[in-house]
């Protein structure tokens, strides 16, 4: 009997070809992935670490250690350099707020229920005295203008009642003071001291000042009352300032310069 060769239909792979292909895949799965992964591992070691698998050892190279230490030293120096200026700025800001709060305390004394010397007398102004002269520029004085020797709103150290003396923190001081009708005519060179007081029931500030010689500026024999004042404070390093602005309306403002 004659055997006829079967011709595969169009689109189908002969069975012998399928067998050969499957055998090739089995051989490849046993050999190729192992060699390929080892080659990739060896290539990555050379590329990243600079040596082959057989040369790998624990620890850092000298170059890696030097780079790490250099980065650490740079960051440490940067933090130390910035800490001083940050600390000075923080202390100066705190000091300027102390000045502003002391003025608010004087305003509260003058307008609310603080009687003079434990009595029921509310006729005396309460205020703050600021002096830029060298022997007095590290403090500010809360006082009651009980004597009014030099006029209403002027601090007289020998006769007015001293309530509290505030010392400026961490070596800070009052750099300059000035008074005027506005910022344009507030010239520190003309002033040595400024007094800012409040008298019940008027919430407005009474601003008076002294010249460089310590004399009270007057207007028709009475203390001259200004509409604007500045108290400039500086830090212990003398490289940064804050300005406390007081207006005749009683408004208090802090400026960076």
Features:
257 residues; alpha+beta; minor pseudopilin epsh fold; five-stranded antiparallel sheet; four-stranded antiparallel sheet; 2 helices; 11 strands; 33% helix; 25% strand
CATH architecture of the domain at 83-255: 3-Layer(bab) Sandwich
| General form | elongated
Give the structural class: alpha+beta
Estimated helix fraction? 25-40%
Strand order of the largest sheet: 3-2-1-5-6
Provide the residue-averaged pLDDT.
80
How large a portion of the residues is in β-strands, by DSSP E? 25-35%
Q: Which CATH class of the domain at 83-255?
A: Alpha Beta
Low-confidence regions: 28-32
How many strand units? 11
Please tally the helical runs, counting DSSP H or I stretches of 4 or more residues. 2
N to C succession of SSEs? HHEEEEEEEEEEE
In angstroms, what separates the terminal alpha carbons? 117 Å
Largest sheet: 5 strands, antiparallel
Specify Rg, calculated over alpha carbons: 42 Å
**Could you name the CATH topology of the domain at 83-255?**
minor pseudopilin epsh fold
């Amino acid at each position: 009997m004659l055997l006829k060769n079967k011709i595969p239909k169009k689109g189908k792979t002969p069975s012998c070809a399928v067998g050969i292909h499957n055998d090739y895949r089995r051989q490849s799965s046993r050999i190729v992935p192992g060699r390929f992964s080892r080659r990739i591992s060896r290539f990555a070691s050379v590329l990243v670490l600079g040596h082959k698998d057989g040369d790998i050892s624990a620890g850092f190279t000298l170059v890696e250690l030097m780079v790490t230490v250099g980065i650490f030293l740079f960051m440490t120096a940067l933090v130390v350099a910035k800490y001083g200026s940050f600390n000075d700025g923080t202390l100066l800001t705190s000091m300027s707020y102390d000045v502003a709060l002391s003025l608010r305390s004087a305003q509260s004394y003058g307008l609310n229920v603080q009687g003079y010397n434990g009595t029921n007398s509310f006729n005396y102004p309460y205020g703050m005295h600021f002096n830029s002269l060298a022997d007095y520029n590290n403090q500010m004085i809360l006082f009651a203008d009980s004597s009014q020797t030099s006029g209403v709103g002027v601090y007289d150290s020998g006769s007015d009642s001293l309530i509290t003396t505030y010392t400026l923190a961490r070596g800070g001081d009052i750099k300059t003071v000035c008074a005027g009708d506005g910022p344009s005519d507030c010239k520190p060179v003309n002033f040595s001291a400024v007094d800012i007081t409040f008298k019940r029931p008027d919430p407005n500030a009474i601003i008076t000042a002294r010249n460089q010689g310590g004399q009270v500026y007057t207007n028709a024999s009475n203390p001259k009352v200004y509409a604007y004042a500045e108290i400039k404070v500086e830090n212990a390093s003398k490289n940064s300032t804050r300005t406390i602005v007081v207006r005749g309306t009683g408004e208090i403002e802090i400026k960076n310069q």
